[in-house]
Amino acid sequence: DADVTQTPRNRITKTGKRIMLECSQTKGHDRMYWYRQDPGLGLRLIYYSFDVKDINKGEISDGYSVSRQAQAKFSLSLESAIPNQTALYFCATSDSGGSVYNEQFFGPGTRLTVL
Amino acid sequence: GENVEQHPSTLSVQEGDSAVIKCTYSDSASNYFPWYKQELGKGPQLIIDIRSNVGEKKDQRIAVTLNKTAKHFSLHITETQPEDSAVYFCAALWEGSQGNLIFGKGTKLSVKP
């Protein structure tokens, strides 16, 4: 079974709709991240969480919100989707382990299309 | 904040040739530089990393070099194989970033048999 799972894998929605992307991990990691990938723009950090009570904005948080329901679950919401939020979204996890030099493990991604 | 520039954006090589991808960073306080490989339809995966106290690191056919003075680091893949075809991302982490990485825009490597 995959260590980091994302649901759904693909989603097509309309402008103005509320969308939730979910991420679950079985790695026991404390840190979780949401990234957005656009062609030619690489990976950009949307939100990150160091534990259930610690949520932080990343580089491009406008238009997004998150919820860390448990150590293993981190959800990303688009309250009112717009076409320029069409992108590939990745969840990632890492283990702080007293160091910042720790590998991030990525999920398989969710391809979101906003019409 | 940190900014990471990655070149080239696309790279095509013949199987068996070497491939080099270069990245530059802006913040001299950056001290950790990982490389991630993203295969088609999958999430990125760490393939090699280097810390600022080391100038070069090698793992079989891949190697990373770091020039702190010039603030650039490079990924070298020797004896390329078709399975090396993927998108490669460099990244940088600096001490004040709480462990967050800043990624380059990626390089799409194609290895032709």
Short key terms for the protein model shown above:
heterodimer, A: 115 residues, mainly beta, 7-stranded mixed β-sheet, 4-stranded antiparallel β-sheet, 56% strand, globular, B: 113 residues, 6-stranded mixed β-sheet, 5-stranded antiparallel β-sheet
Write the layout of secondary structure elements.
The complex is a heterodimer of chains A (115) and B (113).
Chain A: E1 4-7, E2 10-13, E3 19-25, E4 31-38, E5 42-51, E6 54-57, E7 65-70, E8 73-78, E9 87-94, E10 105-106, E11 110-114
Parallel strand pairs in A: 2-11
Antiparallel strand pairs in A: 1-3, 3-8, 4-5, 4-9, 5-6, 7-8, 9-10, 9-11
Chain B: E1 4-7, E2 10-14, E3 19-25, E4 30-38, E5 45-51, E6 56-59, E7 62-67, E8 72-77, E9 86-94, E10 102-103, E11 107-112
Structure, described:
The complex is a heterodimer of chains A (115) and B (113). The model of chain A has no long low-confidence stretch (mean pLDDT 93). Helices cover 0% and strands 56% of the residues of chain A. Chain A is mostly beta strands and 115 residues long. In chain A, a hairpin with a 2-residue loop joins β5 (42-51) and β6 (54-57). Chain A has strands spanning 4-7, 10-13, 19-25, 31-38, 42-51, 54-57, 65-70, 73-78, 87-94, 105-106, 110-114. In chain A, strands 2, 4, 5, 6, 9, 10 and 11 form a 7-stranded mixed sheet that branches. Chain A has a 4-stranded antiparallel sheet with strand order 1-3-8-7, with no helix packed on it. Chain A starts with a strand and ends with a strand. With 113 residues, chain B is mainly β. Chain B is 0% helix and 58% strand. Chain B is built from no helices and 11 strands. Chain B has strands at 4-7, 10-14, 19-25, 30-38, 45-51, 56-59, 62-67, 72-77, 86-94, 102-103, 107-112. In chain B, strands 2, 4, 5, 9, 10 and 11 form a 6-stranded mixed sheet that branches. Chain B has a 5-stranded antiparallel sheet with strand order 1-3-8-7-6, with no helix packed on it. In chain B, a hairpin with a 2-residue loop joins β6 (56-59) and β7. Chain B is globular and about 45 Å long. The interface between A and B is medium-sized, with 26 and 25 residues.
